[in-house]
Amino acid sequence: MGRTARRTYELGDVNIVPSRRTRSSKDVSTSWQIDAYRFDAPILAHPTDAVGSPEFAIELGRQGGLGVLNAEGLWSRHRDPQARIDEVLALAEKDFTGVAAIRRLQELHSVPIDTELLGAAVKQIRDAGVTTAVRVSPQRARELTPTLVAAGIDLLIVHGTIISAEHVGGEVGGPLGVSGPLNLKTFIGEVDVPVVAGGVSDHLTALHLMRTGAAGVIVGYGSVEGATTTRDVLGIGVPMATAIADAAAARRDYLDETGGRYVHVIADGDIHTSGDIARAIACGADAVVLGAPLAAAAEAPGRGWFWPSAAAHPSLPRGSVAPSQLGALGDDSAAGGPSLATVLHGPTFEARGQLNLVGGLRRSMAKAGYSDLKEFQKVGLGVGGY
Asked: By the 8 A CB rule, do 132 and 37 touch?
């Protein structure tokens, strides 16, 4: 009696309700544009080393999505990051508790960031001609951003488990002697590239982030069943359907407040299938962040295993090294897993929406009668599980 709580909904609680018309999936566009950058598919990679090598970012860009390099990951700390990842995977395969793999991840991330390695990784992606996006944490954003901008990034993603308009804790001094709180509004105003920030879970925080000048706001904490343990460790969970809808409402309020400035809502959490992608966009998202579904691709550095970036936290890891559900589903690729092209565009023999993700989204839009993503955000919704 002393507390109240909202009734909230996960993506699995929501169903898309088709309209009176349908159309051919060939007449549907899944393209998405943020600032000056256009993509054939509204898909970003989770900023983890499991799907975050420069080579994977390049291939994802060629397949129409947006790869995201983690500026604080292994590619900025080690000259042989794939060999270090293979060490982690060997431990994960031997120890079912996952403790050894997490401990090794922590050790690997304790090595100082080498800005020369980081700049080289960014340059590799940029030189391939795809959009270059890099993630930094709020704690190290001011320290690392000058290196990233000088290396030629197109988009900066300030990403943490939980983020607000002002990070009020003192930062650890880095090579540049940076310390003090990070005020995102001031920070974004000083950066020469578009900034995407998140994650958030409620209307008010999303609205505050939009007011900082961010080009996009990430909704969710990257929760992935079997890999992310934020709910277990912190007691914090994001009901994604409600969180996306609340952020979309904040976007509408901010659009009215500013007389037309549109901020993109990017959903990051509990998105495993093409149906989940469709539900997320139907709830109001402009794009989605994928981790485990992309980790199944043969080109992924995690070789079919996934872990979130928070799994390597030095004192409070919030994730595990877990095999992808699609690890045993091979195609004609030498590595034994489906190619990234198959994961995104098919064709597929798998019937639960885990492959041909973009094709599934396209078909859902066509069945509901919508021709583009913005229109699809107006589709009818129903609530209720099976």
From this structure: no
